[in-house]
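Hi U.,

Before I forget, here's the chain from the pilot set. I'm dumping it here mostly so it's searchable later in email.
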Amino acid sequence: MRFLGDYHTHSPFSHGKSPISESILCAEKRGLKEIAVTDHGFSHSLYAVKREDIPVMRAQTTQYVGDVKVFLGIEANLMSYDGDIDIRLDEINNLDLLIVGYHRFVSGGFLRFSLPNLLSVYTHIGKKKRAVRNTEALVKAIERYPIDIISHPAADFPVDITEVAKACAHFGTYLELNRKRMLSDDDVMKVLDTEAMFIASSDAHSADKVGDFAVAESLIRRLDIPYERVANLEKLPVFRGGRIRRA
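Structure:
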């Protein structure tokens, strides 16, 4: 079982510990063909990448000369029940990859969006109602933006995974098998009942975790997930946004 690319990694420009150059070298050592640096979106309350750092990051990704293709993206934050995210379309077009995920602490959307979800997750009060609204929010975002990957779907964020998967299948957005925050077995089987595709990611915050797909590999084997349903398993993914072009 060989994964050819890792498309969700972090650097010190947000919450990562290792320089971009070290992550790239680790990808090379692990035999990956591609890696993407995707730091946390601009509204993350604790670990946001700065807009002015994007050109610096781009320069660092292009300094590498080797066999691994290096891409620059962002893990943007879902911000509201209207499906807003914290990056503009013109900014998306200047990146190679767009990941969108829910994070607990975002500036600008905490009281109306993050806090109600925190309360429902930890108290279970209104959780079903919250799942309906969350599903609508995520589907709206998938419809509005050229999202390539939904990161750690359903983690601390109750949704109807079937409806989210249907939207992903329709628009060509991948659902992530995240090393740290994995979908439940039941949710994986619900996704498999749709035409949605998975993508395995390390969500690495240090170079030694780049290309670590052990958790995803175990899940794939245990649930007998068909290889053709995992976009970066034994093949390179074709991303919805079309911003990644290969010779």
